[in-house]
Amino acid sequence: MSVQTSNRLSMENAPVIKTNLPGPKSKQLLEVQEKLETSSRSYTTFFNFAIDYGKGSTIVDMDGNVFIDWFGGVSVMNLGHGHPAVMEALKNQVDKITHITEVPTEARIRYLKTLNSVLPGKMKDHSKVLMTVTGADACEAAVSLARYNSKKPTIIAFSGSYHGIAGGIVGATSNYHYRDYAGFPAQNYVYAPYPYPYRFNPKVAREDISKEVISRIEEMISDPYSGIPPVGGIIVEPIQGEGGYIVPPDDFLPMLRETCDKYSIPLIVDEVQSGIGRTGKLWASEYLGITPDIMCISKSIGGGVPISSIAYRSDFDQIPKAFHLGTYRGNPLGMAAGAAVLDIVKDDVFLERVRSKGRELLKRFREVADNSNIIGDVRGKGYMLGNEIVTSKKGKSPGTELAGKIRENMFRKGVLMHTCGHYGNVMRFMAPLTIEDDLLDRGMSIFEDAIRETEVGL
Predict the structure, then answer these.
(1) Which of 76, 168, 232, 363 has minimal CB crowding within 10 Å?
(2) Any idea which architecture 24-70+348-456 has in CATH?
(3) Does this model's pTM top 0.85?
């Protein structure tokens, strides 16, 4: 990859590690945090530093160490840290108003118009938008809307799903530990297998995986003795995020759309992590040409400001006042940032770079995998790429501890890369979409070194 020098957003020459990690200043802040903040934190156990500031696709800690950011705040910073257009939008809005509930502002109307102009398929000009605050809040509202319109209680979700862990939506998130923590049972949620080619039943041919999944779903819906109450919605990630950056076969979503149409069931597409250009399309569902009935939008839409929305079919708008309440729904700062983010990400040239660089990265990750016995599968689209770590390729046993060692090794060398997956064994690439070529090159070298050094230790 050639080095990109014009309009550079990130710091030069990253990574630069000057101290042991954590450095002395970071250590002081971590000690105060440990004393005053909840013990439920997890990210500080593997990113053990304190941050001073971020610039583009680089982060500087309190001790002057400079890191390449392949983490992006869990795929929130799609335009990187401190993008000039986003910062300008935020600064302009700060001088006007920073909070008002539902009453229109210039920022609100611009956000609504801009979002409507880029909705997928038939949603454009045929949708309404409901403001929410977080990704979980968006998914909660989407499920409520589906149930209200269908007048049926049951929602089908998928194995490996993650739709949030706050309130009732935790029932749609497949990891049962989160329901234990929240104290909520999975009320009126049932699960179908997600078409996970690498770990699907080996007796089922790859070309038949989607058919197998859809067949099970149709049985759940149509068989009066399936044990499942009437289905009022299906919620799906077009590419699974926390489940392991799993790309389903191309025929899966179109077949699921057909099933929803056949049984008049609302299809909820959760684009919280896969949307806003992450896959090289504005929405991942665009790859397959399907139109959601309800779509969940969050994470990078606000450029780091907590904001989310659902877009839904106009004919679903027969809902009462105060259907989904929340004081902070539609924060003006988030909407100002959201319009600025969409103006950049919707550009075809911008998205084509993500697609083309994503293909290059996928090829390079696969080249590393070809020379490794602990990378079992490499998959993804655009900048949503996963490397599944196993103890050996032959057995496919999840390499959960190995993935943790790789993450730690990369952190010590100055690259932030996080894990996900059913077994926490998938190294996921979710760098800002604006990352410079030289940071991709250096990060890839460090990733390859981390894989090699981890294998040597086996």
Answers:
(1) 363
(2) Alpha-Beta Complex (3.90)
(3) yes
